[in-house]
Design goal:
Elements lengths: L7 E4 L8 E15 L5 E18 L8 E4 L17
Antiparallel strand pairs: 1-4, 2-3
Length: 86
């Protein structure tokens, strides 16, 4: 099956970087191959479109303060700026 787009999130309210509930809508084109016994084998799956409908923080329970981050090491560093080494 197709993978969900890999975006990184951060909750500005609580600092969470790792636990989010993400609801997406995906349009998928796939070849469905049924065996003689009726078992389904999905092949050649291709994502035609995908959109993120909502993101909520697992720690605080809402999505009002969830932001998309670029994934750079500085942006994902939980260390306060005055305490960073380098």
């Amino acid at each position: 099956m197709a993978a969900v787009t890999a975006l990184r999130y951060r909750c500005a309210a609580c600092g969470n970087l790792t636990r989010f509930d993400v609801i997406t809508t995906t349009t998928l084109k796939a070849f469905h191959h049924y065996s003689v016994g009726g078992d389904l084998d999905v092949q050649d799956a291709e994502v035609l479109s995908e959109s993120v409908d909502s993101v909520s923080c697992r720690w605080c329970g809402h999505g009002r303060n969830v932001e998309v981050v670029d994934g750079s090491s500085e942006e994902l560093d939980d260390t306060p700026p005055g305490e960073r080494v380098g």
